[in-house]
Every structure is written in C-alpha cells, then in structure tokens.
Write a structure and sequence with these properties.
Blueprint (H helix, E strand, L loop, with lengths): L5 H9 L11 H11 L3 E7 L7 E8 L5 E7 L19 E3 L2 E3 L7 H17 L6 E7 L10 H10 L6 E4 L11 E3 L1 E2 L1 E10 L3 E2 L9 H13 L14 E8 L7 E2 L2 E10 L5 H18 L3 E10 L2 E2 L4 H14 L4 E3 L7 H4 L5 E3 L13 E3 H18 L2
Parallel strand pairs: 3-6, 3-7, 7-18, 8-17
Antiparallel strand pairs: 1-2, 2-6, 4-5, 5-19, 9-16, 10-14, 10-15, 11-13, 12-14
C-alpha cells in the first residue's frame, strides 16, 4: 500500500475553495483517497430550512472495536481581500519553511496529517484489532447546523460506536506541543430588546426612553461575578458585543433599544441556570423603569470536560516525546465540534499552532506538519498495540 505524503495532500486540499457551506468537490476528493486505503465511506448531505446543503463524510476501516475516530473539517473562512495576500490563497505556496494557503492552518493540513498517519500505520500493521474512522464536516466555520451535530445524530441512529475521538483543531498557541484541549466552556448568546415609548426629547414625561433601562441592565450584567473559575476551567465571563438604537433623529426619544451579549461559562453553570439568572435581572429593572423586554437566546454548546484517562495520558506522552514539550491539558479558547462529539464518545483536541488561522497568508510550518504526522502515527500504533 502506497504511503500518502502529508504535504502533498495538504496542498491538494487547499486548492479547493471550500468556503462554508460550499463544498467545491473537496469531500469527494478525500473520500476517494480514503477508499483507496480500504475505508467504507458515506457522504452525508444535510439541509435545514432557509440554509444551503452541506456535505459531510463518515468513513470507517474495520468493523471491530475499539473504534478510534479522527474528527475535523474541510470548510474554510473566506480569504478576504486577495490583494492583501502575498500568494493566491487557493494556490498553495511554500515560503521560508511554511505552507501558505487558506485552510493550511485551520485545518486542512491536520486532516492531511492524519490521513498520512493512517497510511503509514497500515503499511506497518496490515492487521489490527479494531477500527479507524473519520468524521469530517463541511459546516464548522458556519452555523454548524448541518454538520457534525447532524452526523452524530445519524451515527446514533445507526448505533455506530466510537470509543475515542481525536479532534484535529489547531490547539497550540505558539509552539507545537504546548496544549491539548480536554474540554470547552459553554457559549450563550442573548439578544435583549427593551421596549419603551417614543416621544419628543423636550417632553420626556410623555415618553419612556428604553436606552435608560438598557444601560442600567447592561451595567448590572457587567458587574456580575459568575464564579472564580474551577480546577479545570477559567472564570465565566460576559461581554456585550452590540448595542443598537435605531434612531436617526436627534430630537426623538427612541421607542426601542437592543443589545447583544455573549457568556462563556464553565461547568458550574448550564445555559438553563444562566437564563433564569438573567431573566430575573431583566424583569426587575424593566418593571422598575416601566418598560417591557424581549429576549432571544442562542446556545452554541454547553460546557464540557473529558476527564483525563489512559488514552489522554498516552497522547500527552507521545506529544512530549516528539516535541520535547509536555502539553498542558486545557479548556481555554472558543467552542469546537467536540461539543457535539462528546455526547457519544470521550474526546480531546490536538493539532497545529493556531497563530495564523483565519488570517491573511494563513500558514503552517513544514516542520510542524511533519511532526504532527509522526505524532498521529504513534498514537495509532500505541492505541492498537
């Protein structure tokens, strides 16, 4: 069986302009590569109302347990102004020991590294007890409604068992080997609308300015100290991200004011408990100011933690062996698709250095890419030994 070169495959994947939710043919391309390695594959296309269809891929080699799964995504963010790039973002180039192109960092190179690692593993171990699988989505950078979440539901219906999942997101802040993610904080977004009474600024007694109520509420929200953090998580925090008063006149008291906020919360809280806490504040201050309020919530994911086990420590030791750095087991950063996968399998995240993801001239170190392939290869060797 021919070994697959991680750099060559990364280049091939980057050439596809697979900007969410556009597939551009990249999923079928990867499917063909995996079929050549002996995988059974299934392209899963999902579509919600008022959304465009998204292609996902589930592939499995073997039918025995344990099933070790690699999860990742092949969709990318837009490149922005191409004139700002020193290269064409979809014509991968090598400069100063780095592969440059959109998706090089987040996260086509990681996918390529694991495919390469599988080909190396199969050349060394043609027979092994267990299965290897891929869960690849095309909807990680978007709303994530037609991606991993729906694939997980499909796997549940098919009673497909995953025993451990490695998510290949770029987890390292500055150097390869610094960090393994074993959980993530939850994310709750709220869109708060205060309804007052419009009027003339010269006659405030005839109006009810909703901005006054909104300011009081936002001030109270910012003064909340949710917690001091936990052993595994940093403190929860709330940030106001938008304030909107749709009023073009300087002499009119508006009838409505709106603000958007986001809370990143640890495992001391749930989205339900936070909603109850916030709603009490909205009701109390709105009632005092004789205003009304409307609130819309969106939960991207609850806080979760995969308690370190033997596989966690095995991966940590392999990373240390290759990089000479003992990676920290962390829950920092934003959300990832691990928030969906954790419902069916223990999982952790380890990939490349994320310094250039989503940036102009997104890049990956060739040395890091080679090391990551080696790490993934050793993980498979050890897991199935």
């Amino acid at each position: 069986m021919q070994k697959i070169n991680e750099l060559q495959l990364a280049k091939e994947l980057i050439r596809f302009p697979s900007i969410t939710p556009t597939d551009a043919g990249v999923m079928r391309f990867l499917e063909k590569k995996l079929k050549k390695l002996g995988f059974r594959t299934k392209i899963l296309e999902f579509r919600e109302k008022k959304s465009k269809p998204v292609k996902n891929l589930y592939a499995r080699l073997g039918n025995k347990t344990p099933n070790f799964c690699y999860a990742g995504h092949l969709d990318i963010v837009p490149p922005g102004n191409i004139k700002d790039w020193t290269v064409n973002p979809f014509r991968p180039s090598i400069k100063a020991g780095h592969l440059i192109g959109r998706g090089a960092n987040d996260m086509k190179s990681s996918v390529a590294a694991f495919v390469s690692a599988v080909s190396i593993f199969l050349n060394n171990k043609k027979k092994f007890k267990g299965s290897i699988s891929f869960l690849i989505t095309g909807d990680e950078e978007g709303d994530a409604i037609n991606g991993t979440k729906k694939v997980i539901n499909y796997l549940k219906k098919k009673k497909e068992k995953i025993n451990f999942c490695l998510v290949g997101e770029p987890t390292n802040p500055n150097r390869l080997g610094e960090m393994i993610k074993i959980g993530r904080r939850g994310s709750l977004t709220g869109i708060l609308t205060i309804l007052g009474t419009q009027g003339h600024v010269a006659y405030p007694h005839r109006a009810n300015n909703p901005s006054t109520t909104l300011i009081k509420i936002l001030n109270e929200l910012k003064n909340i100290r949710f917690d001091k953090g936990t052993k595994n998580f940093q403190p929860s925090n709330l940030e106001v991200t938008k304030i909107n008063i749709d009023n073009n006149a300087d002499n009119v008291i508006p009838g409505q004011a709106e603000a958007t906020f986001n809370i990143r919360y640890n495992d001391k809280h749930s989205s339900s408990s936070l909603k109850k806490k916030l709603n009490k504040i909205f009701y109390k201050i709105s009632k005092k100011n004789k205003s009304k309020f409307k609130i819309q919530y969106r939960v991207s994911g609850e806080a979760f933690l995969t308690k370190p086990n033997a596989t966690t420590f095995m991966i940590q030791n392999i990373v240390k062996k290759i990089t000479k750095i003992k990676p920290k087991l962390s829950t920092t950063g934003g959300t990832s698709d691990a928030r969906f996968i954790k419902s069916i399998s223990p999982c952790l995240e380890f990939g490349l250095v994320g310094k250039t993801m989503h940036k102009v001239d997104e890049a990956v170190s060739l040395s890091d890419l080679k090391k990551l392939t080696k790490i993934y290869s050793l993980i498979l060797d050890k897991y199935f030994s």
